[in-house]
Amino acid sequence: MALYTIGDIHGKFSKLANKLNELPTGAQIICVGDIGLGFPDSRTAECLSDVDQVATERGQQVWLIRGNHDNPDIWQTQREEWNSQLRNIRIARDVDRLKIGNVHAILVGGAISLDRSHPDRLDGHNWWNKEGVQASALEQVERIVDSYGRADILITHAGPIEAKPGPERDTETFEFYQKNDPSLKTDVLAERQLLSDILVASQARTIAFGHYHVPLESNVGPIRYRCCAELEAWEYVKRSVLPPLPAL
Q1: pLDDT value at position 242?
Q2: Which CATH number among 3.40.50.720, 3.40.50.2000, 1.10.10.10, 3.60.21.10 corresponds to the domain 3-236?
Q3: Where are the transmembrane segments (predicted)?
């Protein structure tokens, strides 16, 4: 069973539908956040109707995790309502787990916006003050592993602190917003460290994420870090699965 992650959507739902048409029928697909849900033109499940139609016709299951450009209320209080109106698209819990064939995936949503102090960011309209990774996420992941065993892959929106691109790429942004948002750098680094702790707790050897809009893979020891660019589809193959032997 094919498993793909797709990078940030940012409300480009027609492009997401086109991307699903390029992926195999029956595939399991996890969108890594910044779907773009909760903005004035995407406050009801109807905004996903065309995407849902394509997924249904192709027998694909599409899971949506939360990014910083998503209204947390949709994931935390409206999830069942949205899911009842969709067929093959599912709003995941902020901390969730999936068993896809022989793959155990843990999902963790949320991230801090670097431009959260920008005057154009209005709380409840195009920015949400509950956007970050939940403080309880680490404990929830620990409980999942205690109950179901280690994850094969962890899927998040932002990346751990060891992942590339690293925090150093945001130095100019931190300096730009420092005057109006003096705790931004501290908060972002703390969140990336929290995601590192969550990765350790998950015991996964692969983590896929978005947020940084670049297609980039890096390794630190046995851990593979995969950053997905906007609307990029990346196929996850469990490392214990050997490739087929060449034909004789």
Answers
A1: 55
A2: 3.60.21.10
A3: none
